[in-house]
Design goal:
Chain lengths: 729, 94, 136
């Protein structure tokens, strides 16, 4: 079947190249049949790549180790869910996933616009097929998922234990969905620029939902990574300004600016240059993000290896940057604004400021991420920047951003007068400042940046609440409905607006959570022996006793050895919770040079974090066991088993090994071992995840398809009115 | 390469060719009819968007984000644009 | 003030703000970044300056200490290695043979690692390891 998979990808590449040719030919010569053939090529590629992906998945699920990628990333003992997800834990599998998602969304958008955008669509098709051809070429010539091993091993290498977490497996598909969805508006922007159709907002209207969906998926993907980092890794943080994290954030920032800025173009015909520039930048950054993860050019915890794919990607990114700049300059006449900015206190101005802040943030993150390369080019030495530098700039920018998200939806178009400013802002401002005063009295003033964020967050919630209140009032005045029904129909008829408001509330909660947990957390690293207690943030952490266990798989094989602790957490003498942090040691598969007993401690190690999440604060702990005292026993075990090697039948040897390991873990407990603990109490961390859920819900509402109002009857009424006025005028 | 794989590849090849090449042998009359329907669909989409804008503007007026004079001006402009679209729809036969 | 003049003033203000931000970025990044070095670069290290060290953990050099871990870091391809003493939470993937990034300061003959700055690179994903593993 591998050969079929290979053939499908080769066919996909050929069809993509064909599709580009006929789409361009049809566009230039205005020959409908070639354009349709080009569109059908996209459908065909979707089918071909789906087939290829299915073959790969099948190989993983059936543990077909003849496939090289299955042998190196999966094993028979890997649980089924992770077997399926292991498909994209490899370079070649992830590229295939990217191509598959691209082909799906491309099919969706081209099918949905097959009767519209007749001038722009063929060019957009060509661009999308260009991306498809690029990735297909990589898969065919450089990194094939269908390489076969001459001799299929009996067992695979298995999935890295660090990745055996649901978040970690959903994280890549989410990110890739975000990246690939952003290529859709990118492609249509390119098409609109080439055909000088950028004046009308048609290309925006057709791709707006894709941009919003991209934004949503990318955001969720980023948050899943943060969540995994917090709850699975032993450092207790959720964001490290790591280059790969930053690479996924960049298109999200410019994408946020884009989905807001297009509203101004739709309403007032302004910011056209901004919009095309933002969407072209977002698409380019999405490709850059895809590339950075696998390039190895920057030092990162996600160092997925220096690969051979660097050069093709750099060329593609170069073409995208050069082409984008060229297109915008070439069509600048068509991108002229239809209206001018009347006042700096207007919704148009706030949206413009929003663009500026987001682009500034993106620039800061970009600069900090690529600084090692820039510095090397400028000064000859590689230099790197740490989180404090990033925080210096992103914190004030984030505060301004949250503030703008409270002002934007409410401020008047064209020019805010003192009268309507008072009407719209007085209540939320008073509420927010009042809350700020209260918090300051409780000690929040010691961290002014966090306090500012709290005030701005409160402002957002208050102003959105006011919007809902007023909207329900208007609706009830119009229809006499009860409040709950009015709320439902208000949201249903104005999905974009009220879904968007909900997203703002979610983001405010998220940022408040980030501010509180960064500014007011208490962390301690301490070494304890059983019975000892340490304090952090008003809580007492007592290392009650050591734990240890040997875990076996369902097949009876030894999976890992865990050393842990029972930690009692108290506050003011009262017991709050018992946490059980652990460190798990997986056996090394590579047995060269390692003793039969020792190899169980030389493989991967994972932390099991002890975490109690709460609405007001999280209590978090991770531990590192001190197993130095066990080393003599382990070494002795190595000697004994090495000497006895081959003298016992395998089952007995396995049993003896099991007994030796059980003895070691018992010895650990008996020795009352010291351990190093990291304990953290962090306020409002849960608000980050809750805020993310609210963002997701709001985004879904805003995305939801269908007419925003009962279509036929109302439009007929409007049509009659418009026609009537036409007769009168 | 075994016979089954070869068969599958050939079948896929034929299917792809059929999907991709079929429009090239299409009917001119059908195409023209299709084009007219497409134009109507595009105008309908524009019309719906314009109506949305008119409704949004009214909402903005009622919630105090648009002054009455601004709303009057905006509403007039939007309705004029709606009329243009309706006229175009009439001409296209929708 | 005529609108054209207003717009020009706004443009000037906006551009000035952008230039200011850019200058601030460049200045602070030159000031607060630490030099990225390999072990062989550290032979000329100055005491007290912080460096971002990248390299591989030398096989057999890892010793647990009460507060953390002591180990040696060598060039990716090479023999020069330096001793590092690190206090703090040791990341899960840390082990000998892996590539690490750590911010260190020279103290006497050893390099002391800054808390929480030890980063171990995830080894097993998109590497050319497949061929290496198959052949080893």
């Amino acid at each position: 079947m591998a050969i079929v998979g290979r053939a499908l990808l080769i066919l996909a590449l050929v069809v993509a190249l064909y599709g580009i040719a006929v789409s361009l030919y049809g566009a230039v010569r205005r020959r409908e049949e070639w354009i349709v053939s080009g569109r059908r090529s996209v459908y065909a590629i979707a089918g071909l790549v789906t087939g290829a992906f299915a073959i790969l998945e099948y190989a993983f699920l059936t543990s077909d180790f003849a496939f090289a990628t299955v042998a190196s990333h999966s094993s028979t003992t890997t649980p089924t869910f992770y077997q399926a997800a292991a498909a994209w834990s490899s370079q070649e599998g992830s590229l295939l996933l990217w191509l598959w998602l691209l082909s799906l969304w491309s099919t969706l958008v081209l099918f949905g616009t097959r009767r519209q955008l007749r001038i722009v669509a063929p060019w957009a098709t060509a661009v999308l097929l260009g991306f498809a051809a690029f990735f297909a070429a990589l898969l065919v010539f450089k990194e094939t998922p269908f390489a076969l091993l001459a001799v299929a091993p009996a067992e695979g290498a298995g999935l890295n234990p660090l990745l055996r977490h649901p978040s970690m497996m959903i994280h890549p598909p989410m990110l890739y969905s975000g990246y690939t969805l952003f290529t859709i508006p990118f492609a249509f922007a390119v098409g609109a620029l080439i055909t000088r159709q950028v004046g009308a907002a048609d290309w925006i209207r057709a791709t707006r939902r894709f941009a919003l969906a991209a934004w949503l998926f990318l955001g969720i993907g980023i948050l899943l990574g943060a969540r995994w980092s917090y709850s699975e890794l032993g450092w207790g943080g959720y964001w490290a300004w790591d280059p790969v994290e930053n690479a996924s954030l960049l298109p999200w920032l410019t994408g946020t600016a884009f989905i807001h800025s297009i509203m101004i173009q739709e309403k007032r015909g302004m910011l056209k240059i901004w919009n095309v520039s933002l969407v072209l930048a977002t698409g380019t950054l999405a490709i850059l993000g895809t590339f950075l993860v696998r390039s190895g050019i920057l030092d990162s915890i996600h160092a997925f290896g220096a690969s051979t794919l660097g050069v093709p990607f750099v060329i593609l990114i170069g073409i995208m940057i050069g082409g984008s700049i060229g297109l915008v300059v070439w069509r600048r006449e068509a991108l002229r604004s239809e209206n001018r900015l009347d006042s700096l206190l207007s919704r148009e101005a706030i949206f413009l400021l929003n663009n500026l802040v987001l682009v500034a943030m993106a620039f800061v993150v970009f600069w900090g991420t690529f600084w090692p390369l820039i510095a090397e080019a400028l000064t000859g030495t590689r230099r790197s920047l740490g989180p404090p530098w990033f925080d210096t700039y992103t914190v004030p920018l984030a505060i301004v951003l949250v503030l703008l998200s409270g002002i934007g939806p409410v401020i008047a178009w064209r020019k805010a007068t003192p009268a309507n400013a008072r009407r719209n802002f007085l209540l939320p401002a008073v509420a927010a400042l009042g809350l700020g005063g209260v918090l300051a009295a409780f000690g929040a003033a010691s961290r002014p940046a966090a306090l500012a964020m709290f005030v701005c967050g409160a402002f957002v919630v208050a102003s959105v609440g006011q919007e809902f209140w007023r909207g329900v009032g208007v609706r009830r005045a119009m229809t006499g409905e009860g409040p709950l029904r009015a709320l439902r129909s208000l949201v249903a008829r104005n999905r974009r607006r009220y879904g968007g408001y909900l997203v703002h509330v979610g983001m405010a909660l998220l940022f408040v959570g980030v501010a509180a947990s960064s500014a007011f957390n208490n962390a301690r690293d301490v070494r304890l022996t059983p019975g000892q207690t340490t304090r952090a943030g008003g809580y007492e952490f007592t290392y009650a006793k050591a734990t240890s266990r040997v875990s076996t798989t369902k097949a009876g094989e030894l999976e890992k050895i865990s050393f842990g602790a029972v930690v009692d957490v108290r506050r003011d003498g009262e017991k709050i919770v018992t946490l059980r942090p652990e460190r798990g040691f997986f056996p090394s598969r590579d047995i060269r040079g390692l003793g039969p007993v020792g190899r169980f401690f030389e493989g991967e190690a994972t932390s099991e974090v002890g975490l109690q999440a709460g609405i007001r604060r999280d209590v978090w702990t991770a531990m590192t066991p001190d197993i130095r005292n066990l080393m003599p026993t382990i070494e002795e075990g190595d000697r004994v088993f090495a000497a006895a090697a081959g003298k016992l039948p395998p089952e007995l040897e396995g049993q003896a090994l099991g007994q030796a390991l059980s003895g070691i873990v018992r010895q650990y407990i008996a020795s009352k071992p010291a351990a190093t603990f990291r304990v953290i109490t962090s306020p409002l961390v849960t608000w980050i995840w809750l805020g993310a859920i609210v963002v997701f819900l709001g985004g879904l509402i805003a995305l939801w398809p269908g007419p925003d109002a009962p279509g036929r009857r109302v439009s007929a009424r409007y049509a009659a009115r418009v026609a009537e006025e036409l007769g009168r005028a | 390469m075994d016979i089954l794989a070869l068969l599958v590849i050939v079948m896929v090849l034929v299917a792809v060719l059929a999907i991709v090449a079929s429009p090239l042998r299409g009917d001119t009359r059908e195409r023209v009819r299709g084009e007219a329907a497409d134009e109507i669909a595009e105008l309908e989409a524009r019309k719906e968007a314009k109506y949305r804008e008119i409704r949004d503007a009214e909402m903005d007026l009622r919630t105090g984000k648009l002054s009455p004079e601004d709303h009057r001006e905006l509403d007039r402009a939007l309705r004029a644009e709606a009329v243009v679209i309706l006229k175009a729809l009439d001409e296209a036969g929708g | 003030m005529p609108p054209a003049r207003k717009r020009r003033i706004r443009l000037v203000v906006a551009l000035s703000a952008a230039v200011l931000l850019a200058c601030a970025l460049v200045y602070t990044s030159l000031l607060s970044s630490s030099e990225s070095v390999t072990p062989s670069d550290l032979t000329a290290a100055k005491a007290g300056t912080s460096y971002t060290l990248t390299g591989k953990v030398v096989d057999g050099s890892v010793r647990s200490t009460d507060g953390g871990v002591d180990f040696r870091v060598r060039d990716r391809e090479g023999r020069t290695s330096v001793p590092v003493s690190y206090n703090g939470a040791v990341p899960d993937p840390f082990r000998e043979g892996r590539e690490v990034i750590i911010t260190v300061r020279k103290q006497g003959t050893t390099f002391v690692g800054e808390r929480d700055s030890l980063v171990t690179k995830c080894p097993s994903k998109f590497t050319e390891d497949a061929t290496q593993r198959a052949s080893s």
